[in-house]
Known about the structure:
Helix 1 (14-25) links the parallel strand 1 (4-10) and strand 2 (35-42). Helix content is 35%, strand content 24%. It has 3 domains: 4-131, 3-Layer(aba) Sandwich (Rossmann fold); 138-299, Dihydrodipicolinate Reductase, domain 2 (2-Layer Sandwich); 342-425, Alpha-Beta Plaits (2-Layer Sandwich), CATH 3.30.70. Strands 7, 8, 9, 10, 11, 12, 14, 15, 16 and 18 form a 10-stranded mixed beta sheet that branches. It has 14 helices and 18 strands. The model has no long low-confidence stretch (mean pLDDT 94). The chain is of the alpha/beta class. The termini are far apart. The structure holds NADP nicotinamide-adenine-dinucleotide phosphate.
Amino acid sequence: MSRTWRLGVAGLGTVGTGLLTFLAEHPRFAPAGGQAVVTGVSARSRTRPRAFDISALPWFDDPVALAQSDEIDVFVELIGGSDGPAKAAVEAALNAGKPVITANKALIAEHGRELAELAESKGAPLLFEAAVMGGVPAVKMVREAFVGDDITSISGILNGTCNYILTEMESGGRAFAEVLAEAQRLGYAEADPTMDVGGFDAAHKITILAALAFGCAPNYAAAEIEGIEQVELIDIQMARDLGYRIKLVASAEQAAEGVLVRVHPTLAPLSHPLAQAGGALNALFIEGPRVGRIFVQGPGAGAGPTAAAVAADIADVMTAAVRPVFQAPAGSLKPFDPINPSKMMGRAYLRFLVKDEPGVIAAVSETLAEAGVSIESFLQKPVENAGGVPIVLTTHATAESVLAAAVERIAGLPAVLDKPRLLRIARI
Ligand SMILES: NC(=O)c1ccc[n+]([C@@H]2O[C@H](COP(=O)([O-])OP(=O)(O)OC[C@H]3O[C@@H](n4cnc5c(N)ncnc54)[C@H](OP(=O)(O)O)[C@@H]3O)[C@@H](O)[C@H]2O)c1
């Protein structure tokens, strides 16, 4: 029997109007032979100009009232933010037993477990395909298609704004602040760019993927986060001379002791697929013992791709193709035990600004050798107005705690003029 699914859409910005446009252009969007119809919308301002004309749609001042309304069967939350009206409305819809679809990574990363428990106790689906990698079906892939493998690691580029900024810095030889200001003018970066450039947005996304992949509850507080604000042009250029490109990489690894989730600028060899993913692209590696290594890339944001991901969730609700919110029912999710990263082994890029005098390079290499850190490559290049001589080296794999201690000792040498810069090199 053909059924009509009445949708309430809260949040009518980039994604919300993208979804309304998609549904208007696909009036027969009917994956289960039913029909999806928007019967209520909500945002802050009823009158502001939008990319979609909402004058014919029933308006709700309060997204919570929309979520609870008898006029809707499915609630679509496209407001954003980990708390506030988005969370209140999602909880209201779930409490009313209504399926919820959201693009809100902050909400799922920070409150995923409690929302999953609520959703499952009410028998209401909670879906969030659009929350990670926009148009790339990363959530479905990790939650559903990989259950036959034991994923060991996931890593990739999950923030298009950072990827755009780093790409522009390299191609135009321009500093971070200049490129960020231009990205804001062009609408590629928010007026407050902290969530993006600080690495927090990517951390929300990798927290969600880690939970889906490893069958644990999301634990955003355990994520180690470093953004791209400190990436200097000199590092981009020196890395390139050494055959690398700097990317903001988000990664999650499962080991016997627990899970490590981190986001930090990372050097990837120029031929590496992550180094090749330029502009605003997102890219992801998923690795498991049976399937091996899978790589996907695509648009991580934008009205069209994100609305397509929301529509895919609507289709899942219409076809009742619903799984537990995370990989397993909320009650049986494993604890997310963070690993102490100091034991992790990895290669690194180090830059020191030193006095232009004899013996300095020997002192740096001796300090590293004494600590047991072996040097892989070395680069010294005169840079105008640097206030000293920058020397750059890459190391062979070393325990992070050993490397950190050696770098601290080098920072204390009298010939070292500035705080050393340490960037990790991709392990994949
Ligand atoms: N943009 C993307 O490409 C993208 C990609 C993936 C995921 N997402 C996620 O999708 C969600 C929406 O993002 P967006 O880019 O569409 O955001 P946006 O353009 O800023 O739109 C946000 C919408 O929420 C409404 N809103 C804000 N505060 C509200 C409140 N207190 N009560 C009711 N409505 C309120 C706004 O109303 P007004 O319009 O009246 O101000 C606006 O319509 C976020 O969770 C975001 O992380 C976005």
